[in-house]
What we know:
Blueprint: E1 9-13, H1 19-27, E2 32-36, H2 39-47, E3 53-60, E4 64-65, H3 67-75, E5 80-88, E6 92-95, E7 108-111, H4 113-118, H5 120-125, E8 129-132, H6 136-144, E9 152-155, H7 157-162, E10 166-169, E11 179-186, E12 202-208, H8 217-226, E13 232-239, E14 247-253, H9 260-271, E15 275-286
Parallel strand pairs: 1-2, 1-3, 5-15, 7-8, 7-9
Antiparallel strand pairs: 3-4, 3-11, 5-11, 6-9, 6-10, 12-14, 12-15, 13-14
EC number: 4.2.1.51
Pathway: Amino-acid biosynthesis; L-phenylalanine biosynthesis; phenylpyruvate from prephenate: step 1/1
Domain ACT: 206-284
Amino acid sequence: MVEKKWETRVGYLGPEASFTNIAAKNFFKDGWLLPYATIPECIEAVSLGELEYAVVPLENTLEGTVTLTIDYLFHEADLSVNAEILSPIEQHLMVHPANAEDWEEIKDVYSHPHALAQCYKYLFYRGIRQHQYASTAAAAKFVSENKELQIASIGNRLSAKKYGLVVVQENIHDFHKNHTRFLVLSKDKKILDHEGSSKTPKTTFMLTLPVDDRSGALHQVLSVFAWRRLNLTKIESRPLKTGLGNYFFVLDVMEDESHPMMNGAVEELQALGCKVKSLGTYYTHQTPSSPN
Ligand SMILES: O=C(O)C(=O)Cc1ccccc1
């Protein structure tokens, strides 16, 4: 492969034509985009210095957090968020052209767990079995290579085109307001400003509560933000993996981490006995719906 030294190396959850690929292409118009088979491999490539940036899915309106991403960022990696990309998501059912006529007979469908979950009602009422794949595009590729299995995949129109599949049912996601939030990650704390980005700073914190298990600890954490009028747009708990009842929290705050109120909030949280880590401040970039 010819090395394109002058370009920014950007990894994404691949293969080509995944939703993540479309989001990454929209944000890094001149980047050298490199597909990775899994989210951890993509994140790891940034940690190892093989890539400057990784683009990975974080959260979806219908199915919530991509736990693999958030858990890997907490437990395994030390990266910062430089931007978030919001993309409208439409899920289509696609099959190999050889199975297009009898597509209604198909009983097995492959896709990323979040894509399957976004179409839960559609699949459930038709008695279709779900099979998880690392990404929607990887599932489309698998379907294209296995026409004798009479299977379908769920994903975007570009992946159908790329892997030679036929869309047999459009927009099968259960709710219409379907968006996915992708993160742009790197080793450095910085805001990647993009033409058309929101310019509204958002900061993501990860924190653990004091170890003494005192009652009202989470209430104290929330009040640190509340009295400073720092607006939280998300709080989520995830297992610390050290025992039942032990969690870390992810908080999104609509402010720049260098703001004096944010410095004060972090200091107060530490004084309460919390361990706090900021993943950095970033802007939001919205993309149009998936290309055809
Ligand atoms: O990028 C993809 O294609 C993925 O499989 C992750 C995903 C799944 C569902 C919606 C958006 C991204």
